[in-house]
Design a protein that fits this description.
seven-stranded mixed beta sheet
Length: 256
């Protein structure tokens, strides 16, 4: 059964216009605070940005897309080209591949691609996650934002790579993070992953996802997996970058 989602009505009149726009865009009810527990998730339009939170008891705190966060900016500044994620997409010398992040999630990986100088397209199928990303991009693009230059290289597209009616232009690299299965304890340790898994439900068919990515990528498909998770397909992995909890499987396209 699909998750139920409401928008919490703020007492701050400055939030009224944004809330009503969100209500219209997402077709989610706008309800007072005392009614949000009747729904699985609540969206809050706050001064710091649009926030998503599960209403279940002991659920983790809310999440928002914040490209201005100190942690993300610190990672982008920390020898970025030496990080496995960036090495996996194939940056060499001055060349910067175009990247399609086909499972955009909360956008942190796409931000790091853009921070490395790549033009990045984020494809997101969930209207709720798309709204979170759009809000994060809007705040990150503010001229006073320290990451405005990075965010300028990020484009958000609403759609599903598996939807035959949705045309996807060829890209040098297609990146997939299909939220590899995690146990409940592990998932809760990362509230962003936990909330997305609870909101989006079962992952799409990974074999179809991979096949579609291969049809779009000109140079390579990069797949994020759990450290011990099986490969996404029977096709041999060409390059693998292993971290402490995850790895990046790289599938090269035949250039002949």
């Amino acid at each position: 059964m699909a998750a139920t989602i409401a928008i919490e009505k703020s007492l701050d009149p400055a939030m009224a216009a944004a809330q009503h726009a969100l209500e219209e865009d997402l077709s989610c009810p706008l309800v007072p605070a005392e009614q949000v527990t009747q729904f699985d998730f609540v969206l809050r339009q706050e001064a710091a940005g649009l926030t998503l939170q599960a209403t279940a008891k002991q659920a983790p705190g809310g999440v928002r897309v914040d490209f201005n966060s100190a942690a993300l900016r610190r990672r982008a500044a920390d020898r970025l080209r030496h990080q496995d994620l960036i090495k996996a997409i194939g940056i060499k010398g001055a060349a910067r591949p175009t990247v399609l992040d086909a499972t955009a999630g909360l956008g942190s990986d796409a931000f790091l691609f853009a921070a490395s100088g790549c033009q990045v397209w984020m494809l997101e199928r969930s209207p709720i996650v798309h709204a979170l990303l759009a809000d994060g991009l809007r705040r990150g693009a503010d001229p006073v934002s320290p990451v405005a230059g990075i965010v300028a290289r990020m484009k958000l597209v609403f759609g599903d790579i598996l939807d035959p009616a949705h045309a996807v232009d060829p890209m040098d690299v297609v990146y997939l993070d299909p939220m590899f299965p995690a146990d409940r304890k592990s998932a809760r340790s990362g509230k962003g992953m936990y909330l997305l898994q609870e909101l989006l439900g079962p992952a799409v068919d990974e074999s179809d996802l991979f096949a579609r990515a291969l049809s779009v990528a000109r140079q390579r498909v990069v797949v994020k997996r759990g450290k011990r998770s099986p490969a996404i397909a029977s096709k041999p992995v060409d390059i693998c970058f292993r971290g402490s909890s995850s790895r990046y499987d790289v599938y090269l396209q035949d250039s002949s």
